[in-house]
Amino acid sequence: MPVIVTDFTWTQTEDAVRVHVPLKGARACKVDIISTDRYLKVHFPPFLFEAFLYRPVDENRSSAKIGNGVAVFTLMKTSRETWEQLMMSCDKETKQQLREEVLLKHQQKLSSQSRSKAEKQQAEKKYLLETMMKLEQDVRDNIQKMKEAERQKTTAELEAWQEICEKTNTNEEEEDLKKKGKTNSENIKQPVRTCKKKTEQKRTPPRTSGNIQVTFTPRVFPTALRESRVQEEEEWLKNQAEARRSRSSGAEDLQELSENEKNPEWLKDKGDCYFRSGDYQSAVNAYSLALRLNQNLLSVWSNRAASHLKLRNLHQAVQDSSQALDLSTPAVPSNAASRARAHVHRGAAFCELELYVEGLQDYEAALKIFPDSPGLQSDAQKIRDVIEGRETTSASW
Question: What's the predicted TM-score (pTM) here?
Answer without folding.
Answer: 0.39
